[in-house]
Amino acid sequence: MNALEFCVEVLRSGTVQNLGLDAQPAEWEAQLGGDYVDDVRKGRMRRDFGLVELSFTRGTDGWQCVESSIQIHRLATGEPDVVPNPLIKKHGRFEERINFRDLEERMAAEGIRLRRIDDRLQEPHARFAVAESAAILHVVTAELGGMGRPHKGDVWSISLARDFDRRELPIP
After folding, report:
1. Domain annotation covers residue 172
2. Which domain holds residue 42?
């Protein structure tokens, strides 16, 4: 389960390919390759590598990464270019889905606890915080239906963000 191993690595380390939120756009390109799309507007940039999506803001020292998101739900589309080649070289081919229970078991085996954030009881996703890596894990809680879509109990995404402390708290 190569996608599972990748997710465990991200949730354990809080990095992607050893890059954290302090990395510049050129460093991300060096680690994930040049196959990406940039969307730049009003001092903000979204760099989309398919599976990995980054958000930057322009500051006095250049671009600052404010969030990296692992868009696990995109694996279900079966599109061949979703996973950047450097990740395939390191982890092998990625499966189309990651079951949350499998991920939870692997994390527990490594001594990493996922804490549910009880703030979205009416939404199709549950959120879990991983304090060690400042990550938020989103899990599908309702059947979304259709081909190319994750199923109930699958991982939707992982977010590593500068405002983790705010995001990990339940909404009052």
Report:
1. no
2. 2-167
Q: What is the pLDDT of residues 98-123, one digit of tens each?
A: 999 999 999 999 999 899 988 766 67
CA angle 126, 75, 137 (to 5 degrees): 25
Following DSSP, what letter does each residue of 103-125 receive, concatenated? HHHHHHHTT---EEETT-TTSSE
Q: Which two tokens stand for residue 68?
A: 């990296």
pTM: 0.90
Provide the number of structural domains found in the chain: 1
The contacts found for 141-150 with CB under 8 angstroms, 24 or more apart, are 148/76, 148/77, 148/78, 149/73, 149/76, 150/72, 150/73, 150/76, 150/97
Cα–Cα distance, 168 to 111 (Å, whole number): 19
In a domain, 26, yes or no: yes
Q: Is 21 helix (H, G, I), strand (E, B) or coil?
A: coil
CA distance 158 to 71: 7
pLDDT tens track for 118-161:
876 667 889 999 988 999 999 998 776 666 678 889 999 999 98
Under DSSP, the state recorded for 42 is: T
